[in-house]
Every structure is written in structure tokens, then in C-alpha cells.
Design brief:
46% of the residues lie in helices and 14% in strands. Bound molecules: adenosine-5'-triphosphate. One of its GO terms (biological process) is microtubule-based movement.
């Protein structure tokens, strides 16, 4: 059977004619829902999604069609020009954009039947689709700006943009333009967000530019090796590759993944721009020296944003990722050993990224619980803030899948599009009332939420009362007097306490526990500052109390979610290896109780089954005794790892508890 490359070289005119006919019959391409100028007024349904997927294709480059055509060994019958040189080859599209929003790309896949060459038109759907004529500025506006990614990061959330696609499809072109535009706009946006916050607390809005502290790092991940793109190096190895320190990527003891990179502070657009240009030039130098390394490495630019007005709030992050080019096995099989290894590693990380993004999209759309295997790989470990379901930071991921416009690349393009299309989900459905659960703020109505908030502020007022009494009592002691003990207040008396805020402004009519749980910490603090009344609390006390209260609310939500997840996992049918391998012992001879065994399975998620299956395969190949030896050894090793993880988590909890200041 003719390969697709052979088909596109020997039957190009016929394929072009079939495509022309198809194009004449199809309806006109649908545009974007909102014109560019009106984007700010209508956020659109994508804004409510946690994962957004976009497709992009670029225009053909000069002579590219001819190069692709003549590069094929089967292009023996290539037409020659008057000078006997290979004639110019007209471009033939492998991709057509039929709708910009929702985005639809149609890939034209060449085939062969007894009657001659054929084209199959396969449709793929995304949230947005950018055709070859679209400029970088519009792509930036419709992705980063329309989804408010900068404000998200400035408000303590995490925004991540990933460029995926075949080598040469335009990932770097898109990401570099996004990076430079972020440098252009971030500081302006910081001023807008800062002004709002300062006005809310009666501060001086001209100080808005000084609220945020920005630090930047730039990491390159080549195969298993991470290095720092901000590290300048003169040293080169035997092959002329710049030598950079290998950076470890692992979780620290409190569960953060913070590789030891140079973290540069930037104070202006110009600083950020200069830094990005420097890091990109290091990447390009490596690329030239190491035979197009850029297509083989992932590059992650992380901008971390600290809000100095709210030092306890989580730091916001913007992570911009230019992923390594996706390669098919056929494209990498002639590489040397090191490149094969890199290629394998890249494909592994891209596959794992796919699992994580899909799980995140599914979880957001269904409000269910899905295991996200972000620990399985360095790339996804670096994206932990996006994938860790235990994180209380709001996050949003956007993946832009790039495809080449040429018919010669259609097979690659269909791979890319089928990788990314499943990330498209419906926006989260509005849900009917959920049954009330006293421990789950997401089920509280307005009255219960106000009651809880009032109780929180009352607790704060009681503490202040106690503290004021302690001070008075110390003064009295110095004067040789003893104060009467502070009388306890009856509930009706507690209701008379001056709380310092108007709770009904923090939780206005119609607002519920779920609504409050969706606010970012700075938004909640801002609300509390706007609700401040009288002089019972200072600005700083309102801020401190607000951060503490929203922390308590998040904690309740998180515990309720974890509880619910465990209930769901327990009620699910247990992963039963017996289905695959016949009757099986539930565990090895070692001591595991059922509950611990189940907990371990929840911890591993789908990896559990994968590891068991891999062990079974290996055991068959090596002719070992499966049930009595290999199954036992495999589960023992997994249980040991799980127990170590559990012990480390417990130890962290104890440490965190010990580090907490004493409740006065
Ligand atoms: N939308 C576009 N408009 C015009 N030219 C483009 C566009 N996208 C990409 N190009 C050009 O196509 C070429 C390949 O693009 P680019 O280097 O961004 O691809 P890539 O996917 O990052 O490749 P690699 O994986 O090898 O790094 C470059 O010359 C780039 O300038």
C-alpha cells in the first residue's frame, strides 16, 4: 500500500483537485463569536472553564511546499523547470478551518482506492481555532486576555499556557509572542488590580505599582535533564554543547516542587523583556549547537507574583510552556542512542501531560474526583500548581495545539489534533441544590453562611476582648492590683459585640458558601475591607482576620472534598485483578489490612493496574511464578512506597502543627 508521503508526492495534482471540489461544496467558515474589539465586554463561556483548548495552523513558508515535495525519495517524477531544475510546487492544504469558535479544524487525509487517490476529511473540535491568517496579537487577545490569565495570576491563582505540536508547526513562534506580550501588559494590569485593592482599604492608589513583587525563572527540560536557561555559561562539552548545571526536580518535604533555579526579580516591563530575550537567546544558542535542541526540549518560563499587601496569601504564578516537538516513532528511529532516549522521554512526558490535562478537564466539568498522575514525570511535576487537586489556588490551563498547513504533514496533524481535542469539555453545568452538609460550605445557603461568618468574626472579637483584658490585668498587676476575672459572655451578649465589619456586606443576599469559596483570597480580603465599620478593627486586623477566615473556609471545603472522594472511591468496585488473571490472592503474604490496601490503590490510581500488568508481562517473558512470587513482590514494593509516602505526609502534618503559633 502506498504510504501517505508517496501519495502526496505522486498524486499531488489529483489530491488538490479533490480538495478544491470539497472546498466549493462546504459552507463558509464560521468566525469568532465576538469581534476582537468587544472581547472585554463579553467574557464568553470559555472563561468559566478550567481547561481551554485551541488549535492553530500557520501559513506555508516560502519554498516549503517544494522542499517537502522534493524531500521525498519517491518524488522521482518531480516536474523539472526549463533549466532542468526541480520545478516550483504549489502548496496543497492539509488543514482547513471551518469554524473559529467553537474551533473546528478539518484534516485532509490522503488515501488510495482501486479507483485512485482519495481524501478523507476528519473534523476535530476545540474551543478556539486560529487559521493561517491570524496575527499573533489576536491569538494573544483571544487566549490570554479574554480568559483574564494575568488577573488570575495577580490575584493569587495559577495560569498556564502550553504550546504543543509537531516540530516546525509554530509553537515557538506563538509562545515567544505570548511571552513578549505578557512582559508588555503584566505591569499595566498589576497597576489596575493594585489600585482596586488599595482603594478598598482607603490607601493611596498611586502606590499601586509597588504592591506586587515579580520573580522569574526559566527552565529547560531536555530528556530527563533540567537546566537553568538564565545560567550564563562559557563552557562547552566535546560536541560543542553549552555545559549547564543539572537541576534536580523533586518535591520538597512540604510537597512543593521548587527546583533550585536562578530567580530574578523584575520591576518593569523592560526588565522582564530583557530577561526573556536573554533566556531565549541561550535556548537558541543551544539549539544551533545541539542540532535543533529547541524542538527536543520543553522550555518553562515561570513568573511568580507576590502580593506584599497580603503576605499570607498564596503567590500567583504564570507558567508559559513551549513543549518539545511531538515525534512519531518513524521520525525518530534513525536517531542515535541519546536522541532516541530523549525522544522516548519526550513522548512519555507528553503522554503523561495528556493524562493530567484530560483528568483536570474532566474533574472541572463533572465536579467529580479523578486521579491526576502529575508525580509520574518531571514535566508534570513542574506543573504541580495546575494539577494538584489538593491545592486551593484557582488555576486555569490553556493548550494551543499547532499543526503544519501542508498535506504532506496530515498524519502528524491528525495525531496532534486527536491529542488535544479530548481536552475540550462543556462548561461546568449549573447544578441543582445539593443536600445540606454542616461540614461542607459548598452546601450552605445564605443564612447558614452569614451565621458561620458571624461566628468567625465573633471568635475574633472575643479574642480581642480577652487580649485587651490581659493587657489591663498586666497594668493592674504593676500597680499592685488584681482585676476581677473576665466574665464569660452569654450567647445573647456575644451578639452585641462590635465585630468591626458588616457581615451582610461580605455575604450579600443571594450569596452562599459556594460563592465565597470561589473567591480568590485577595478578592475576599477586599470585600472584608469594604465591609469594615467603626474602629473595632484596624485595616491590618481586618486583612489578617480575612485571610484567616478564608483559609478556614478553604480548609473546610478541601476536607469535605477529600471525604467525598474517599467515599466515592470506596463505593467504586475495587480494582479486581481477578477479572484479568482469574482467581487471585488479594495481597501477598505480608500484613496489609483491606483498608490500607484500598488506600494504596486510591493513591496510585490507574498506575496501580498499569504496574501490575507490566509486572505480569515481564513475569511471562521471564517464565517466573506469577502469583506466588511476582505478584507478592510487586504489591510489597508498591505498599512499601505507599507507606513511606503516608509516613512522610503524617510527619509533615505534625511538623506544620508544631510550627503553628499557639492559640491565645
Ligand atoms: N503563524 C505564523 N506566521 C508566519 N510564520 C510562522 C507562523 N508560525 C510559525 N512560523 C514560522 O515557521 C517556522 C517554524 O516555526 P517554529 O520554530 O515556531 O516551530 P516550532 O513548532 O517551535 O518548531 P520546533 O519544535 O522545531 O522548535 C519559523 O520560521 C516561524 O517563523
Amino acid at each position: 500500500m502506498a504510504s501517505s508521503a508517496t501519495l502526496t508526492t505522486t498524486h499531488l495534482p489529483t489530491l488538490r483537485a479533490i480538495l478544491d471540489e470539497w472546498n466549493q461544496k462546504r459552507p463558509a467558515t464560521k468566525g469568532f463569536l465576538a469581534p476582537l474589539a468587544e472581547l472585554h465586554q463579553s467574557p464568553g463561556e470559555n472563561a468559566s472553564k478550567d481547561v481551554i483548548v485551541a488549535f492553530r495552523t500557520r501559513p506555508p513558508l516560502p519554498d516549503e511546499a517544494a522542499d517537502k515535495f522534493h524531500a521525498d525519495a519517491d518524488a522521482k517524477d518531480a516536474p523539472l523547470d526549463a533549466d532542468g531544475q526541480p520545478a516550483a510546487v504549489e502548496f496543497c492544504a492539509g488543514i482547513t478551518v471551518t469554524s473559529a469558535e467553537p474551533g473546528v479544524f478539518v484534516a485532509h487525509v490522503p488515501g488510495m482506492k482501486w479507483s485512485g487517490p482519495t481524501l478523507t476529511h476528519k473534523s476535530y473540535e476545540a474551543d478556539l481555532a486560529f487559521g493561517p491568517d491570524l496575527e499573533n496579537e489576536e491569538v494573544y487577545q483571544r487566549t490570554v486576555v479574554a480568559n483574564d490569565m494575568l488577573s488570575l495570576a495577580l490575584s493569587g491563582g495559577v495560569g498556564c499556557i502550553l504550546a504543543y505540536g509537531q516540530t516546525g508547526s509554530g509553537k515557538t513562534y506563538t509562545m515567544e509572542s505570548v511571552e513578549h506580550r505578557v512582559a508588555r501588559d503584566l505591569f499595566k494590569q498589576a497597576r489596575v488590580v493594585g489600585e482596586r485593592l488599595l482603594l478598598a482599604q482607603g490607601g493611596d492608589p498611586t502606590e499601586a505599582g509597588n504592591i506586587f513583587e515579580f520573580s522569574v525563572n526559566f527552565l529547560e527540560l531536555l530528556g530527563k535533564h533540567a537546566s537553568d536557561l538564565l545560567e550564563s555559561t562559557e563552557e562547552v562539552d566535546a560536541q560543542g554543547n553549552p555545559v549547564r548545571t543539572d537541576i534536580a526536580v523533586r518535591e520538597d518535604k512540604v510537597g512543593n516542587v521548587r527546583p533550585n533555579l536562578i530567580s530574578s526579580t523584575v520591576r518593569s516591563s523592560e526588565d522582564l523583556e530583557e530577561l526573556i530575550t536573554r533566556a531565549l537567546s541561550h535556548r537558541r544558542t543551544s539549539a544551533t549547537l545541539r542540532n535543533a535542541t529547541s524542538s527536543r526540549s520543553h522550555a518553562l518560563l515561570t513568573i511568580t507574583i507576590k502580593n506584599t499587601l497580603l503576605p499570607y496569601a498564596d503567590e500567583g504564578q504564570l507558567i508559559l510552556v513551549d513543549l518539545a516537538g511531538s515525534e512519531r516513532y518513524e521520525d525518530s528511529k534513525d536517531h542515535d542512542k541519546q536522541r532516541m532516549e530523549e525522544s522516548r522521554e519526550n513522548n512519555k512526558s507528553l503522554m503523561n501531560l495528556k493524562e493530567c490535562v484530560r483528568a483536570k478537564a474532566k474533574m472541572a466539568a463533572e465536579d467529580g474526583f479523578v486521579h491526576i498522575p502529575w508525580r509520574a514525570n518531571k514535566l508534570t511535576m513542574l506543573l504541580k500548581p495546575i494539577f494538584d487537586i489538593e491545592s486551593r489556588q484557582p488555576s486555569k490551563a490553556m493548550i494551543i495545539a499547532h499543526v503544519s498547513p501542508h498535506i504532506q504533514d496530515t498524519i502528524h496533524s491528525t495525531n496532534t489534533l486527536s491529542y488535544a481535542a479530548p481536552f475540550k469539555t462543556a462548561p461546568p453545568k449549573p447544578r441543582g441544590p445539593v443536600p445540606y452538609d454542616a461540614q461542607d460550605p459548598r452546601t450552605w445557603d445564605h443564612a447558614r453562611t452569614v451565621e458561620w461568618l458571624t461566628a468567625q468574626f465573633t471568635k475574633r472579637a472575643l479574642k480581642s476582648r480577652q487580649a485587651a483584658w490581659s493587657v489591663r490585668s498586666k497594668h493592674a498587676a504593676l500597680a499592685g492590683k488584681t482585676l476581677k476575672p473576665l466574665p464569660d459572655l452569654a450567647p445573647e451578649q456575644q451578639q452585641q459585640l462590635d465585630l468591626g465589619v458588616d457581615v451582610s456586606k461580605i455575604c450579600p443576599p443571594g450569596s452562599t458558601g459556594k460563592n465565597l469559596g470561589m473567591l480568590y483570597t485577595p478578592q475576599f480580603v477586599q470585600r472584608c475591607l469594604e465591609a469594615k465599620v467603626g474602629g473595632a478593627l484596624t485595616q491590618d486586623e481586618v486583612k489578617g482576620t480575612a485571610v484567616e477566615i478564608i483559609g478556614n473556609l478553604f480548609y473546610l471545603i478541601l476536607t469535605a472534598k477529600t471525604r467525598k472522594r474517599n467515599e466515592i472511591m470506596k463505593s467504586r468496585r475495587k480494582l479486581d485483578t481477578a477479572d484479568v488473571y482469574g482467581e487471585a490472592p488479594r495481597r501477598s503474604d505480608r500484613e496489609y489490612n483491606d483498608e490500607e490496601f484500598l488506600e494504596a490503590q486510591i493513591y496510585y490510581g490507574t498506575d496501580w493496574q498499569r504496574i501490575i500488568i507490566a509486572a505480569h508481562k515481564k513475569c511471562k517473558e521471564e517464565g517466573k511464578d506469577w502469583w506466588n512470587v511476582v505478584y507478592g513482590e510487586t504489591t510489597d514494593a508498591m505498599m512499601e512506597k505507599f507507606r513511606a509516602h503516608k509516613a512522610a505526609t503524617e510527619a509533615q502534618k505534625v511538623e506544620a502543627q508544631a510550627a503553628k503559633p499557639e492559640d491565645d
